[in-house]
Amino acid sequence: MSDATTDTPSNTSGGQTIRPEEAAHFGRLARDWWDPKGSSAMLHKLNPVRLEFLRDAIDVHWAGDIRNARPLAGKSALDVGCGAGLLCEPLARMGAQVTGVDAAPENVAAASVHAEGVGLDIRYMAGEIGSLDIGTFDLVTAMEVVEHVADKAAFVRELAARLADDGLMVLSTPNRTPQSRLLMIGAAEGLGMIPKGTHHWDDFIMPGELGDLLSEAGLSMGEPRGIGFSPMKGLHLGDDMSLNYIVTARKA
């Protein structure tokens, strides 16, 4: 499960963070990204869970009114690895001025067409995040992306460089556990619930490892929440981080 990739060399890290083969893989999925029963069906199931966490984090960070339908009004948001815009569009509806960055031009094209079709003004750009002169943002998100990058430390530094001093970052990623190997790769990819070849278990990141990467980039990590799965609840937030987790970060 990933929302995107990039393959243009970064100006600030001095190297490539996303593998070209990953960009090509996700670019091939662009045409039916918005089909809830298509190849990105799992992302459609995951997105509401991520949004639940994200909305709570936004309200806490900016001490907002939980009844406010547009808690990001007057704020800017950057979604790195945006795919065809599954997260960008809800962020725009929350009032943010949204920029989505993805490696695959096919994804950016699909995202732009969909946003225009639903009347949302979202800026989409293809390329390596470090090579784009786009400034800083109040909110930076990268959902199911860091596990796909070649240089994780460089990628996290690029994210940190895009975060405003009083901004909020939210990341989600699979945990490297026997359970994630069994369920996400063995079962989900094996049964076609996720396109085969989407994940490489060795690239999954444990929460402590992500915390170290964030700390090295000058960020402090919040308390992670697990994204688990059960036949009764489906994908849901909880304490079990053995499959996937989501977490906030702020400048230290």
Describe this structure as you would to a colleague.
This protein is α/β, with parallel strands linked by helices. The chain has one domain (20-251): Vaccinia Virus protein VP39 (Rossmann fold). The protein has helices spanning 20-27, 41-61, 88-93, 105-117, 152-161, 178-189, 207-216; strands at 76-80, 97-102, 123-126, 137-143, 163-174, 219-221, 225-230, 234-238, 244-251. Strands 1, 2, 3, 4, 5, 6, 7, 8 and 9 form a nine-stranded mixed beta sheet that branches. The longest helix has 21 residues, at 41-61. The radius of gyration is 17 Å and the shape is globular. Mean pLDDT is 89; it is low at 1-14. Pathway: Cofactor biosynthesis; ubiquinone biosynthesis. InterPro entries: Fumarate_lyase_CS, SAM-dependent_MTases_sf, UbiG_MeTrfase. O-methyltransferase that catalyzes the 2 O-methylation steps in the ubiquinone biosynthetic pathway.
Question: What would you call the structural class?
Answer: alpha/beta
Rg, Cα atoms, Å: 17 Å
CATH topological fold name = Rossmann fold
CATH level 4 superfamily: Vaccinia Virus protein VP39
Round the mean pLDDT to the nearest integer and report it.
Answer: 89
Largest sheet: 9 strands, mixed
What CATH architecture would you give? Answer: 3-Layer(aba) Sandwich
Tally of DSSP β-strands: 9
Uncertain regions spanning at least 5 consecutive residues = 1-14
